[in-house]
Design a protein that fits this description.
Helices cover 38% and strands 22% of the residues. By secondary structure, the chain is of the alpha/beta class.
């Protein structure tokens, strides 16, 4: 064990712990779609066992990706999978929970007008008594854009304009903006939410232009999903460089990463590298699989790499019962 890992073991991790809820078709026990009553129970169990943040995905559907997509969805041609709409769920989860922070992971900018999204964010922050984390990104899964009629071109350019509107409205309550994609003339947020500068903004990014936007506008940077802390560390180094280029102290930007995980107490799921493959509603995904001690050490490796926030996406076992089985992992980390 490395010296950094021994130090973490001695003091317990300080990293905040998030959970991405599985809220779509095929994510329930026996491959069923997850219903609202189950989602509410999952959220309440997550809060009870000590998670700090609860996230839901902001997608509309999944289909096999076109060959030229940078990020691939591996599933049979002609098959469709999907999830419940994120903001509707978040509003309901705000009432169903009391302490845990809530947010989209991450909101797809192109799905909503940015001024309206800022209004939604400040309203949800009010409903949740100041518990919203506003995750936002440029989006990436082309089939859902075409299916729902949203423009897929120039996504980063659209996000850059949107962030100018959203950040001004959340921080100052007012914006007057005319861009190539969005307009918000003499726009004002009133009433204001419980936090004077609005909820924190989390931006997911890996490429240089997106990293620049994170360095400019984000309170929290998320490096997305990883099966090894080393690749997350590379992303943290890249965003640190982006902060330097933007003239920002990198220490003012929190860093987050996530992983799809599976509890595998008998070691029956994973290959020699600790990776397991799952097919959920036709979609194939890779997960880091391990027993309680192995998952504790896995999360510790991300904090050692510089993460302030680590988000679990538990693919197996499913549902509230599966989340409850993560309690020993959280206890081992604390």
């Amino acid at each position: 064990m490395s010296s950094s890992a021994l130090e973490l073991e001695a003091k317990g991790v300080q990293v905040k712990l998030g959970l991405m809820l599985e809220v779509g078709t095929g994510a329930g026990a026996d491959g069923r779609s997850v219903r609202w009553t189950e989602i509410r129970e999952m959220a309440q169990v997550a809060e009870a066992i000590g998670f700090d943040v609860l996230f839901v995905p902001d997608h509309l559907l999944f289909r096999k990706s076109p060959p030229d997509n940078a990020l691939q969805v591996e599933m049979p041609a002609g098959r469709t999978s999907g999830v419940w709409e994120a903001w509707t769920l978040l509003a309901a989860l705000a009432e169903a929970t009391q302490r845990i922070e809530l947010g989209p992971f991450v909101a797809c900018n192109s799905f909503r007008n940015p001024a309206l999204l800022a209004k939604m964010a400040v309203t949800l922050d009010e409903v949740s008594a100041g518990r919203l984390v506003l995750g936002i990104g440029a989006g990436w899964h082309e089939p859902e854009y075409h299916a729902f009629g949203f423009p897929y071109d120039r996504r980063v350019g659209r996000l850059e304009e949107a962030l100018q509107i959203i950040s001004a409205l959340l921080r100052n309550g007012h914006v007057d903006f005319q861009g190539s994609f969005y307009t918000a003339r003499d726009c004002e947020l009133t009433p204001r939410g419980p936090r004077p500068e609005g909820p924190p903004i989390l931006i997911g990014a890996r490429r240089p232009r997106m990293l620049r936007l994170a360095a400019t506008y984000a309170d929290i940077y998320d490096a997305d999903f990883h099966l090894d802390a080393g690749t997350a560390a590379e992303c943290f180094e890249a965003v640190e460089a982006a902060c330097r280029s933007a003239g920002r102290d990198g220490g003012t930007l929190e860093r987050g990463a996530a992983a799809i995980v599976a509890l595998d107490p008998e070691g029956a799921l994973a290959d020699a590298n600790g990776i397991a493959r799952f097919v959920q509603d036709g979609m194939t995904q890779e997960a880091r699989a391990g027993n309680v001690d192995e998952l504790v050490e896995f999360v510790r490796s991300f904090e050692a790499a510089g993460a302030d926030l680590f988000t679990f996406s538990l693919i197996d076992p499913p549902g509230a019962g599966g989340i409850e089985q993560l309690a020993p992992v959280l206890e081992g980390l604390r």
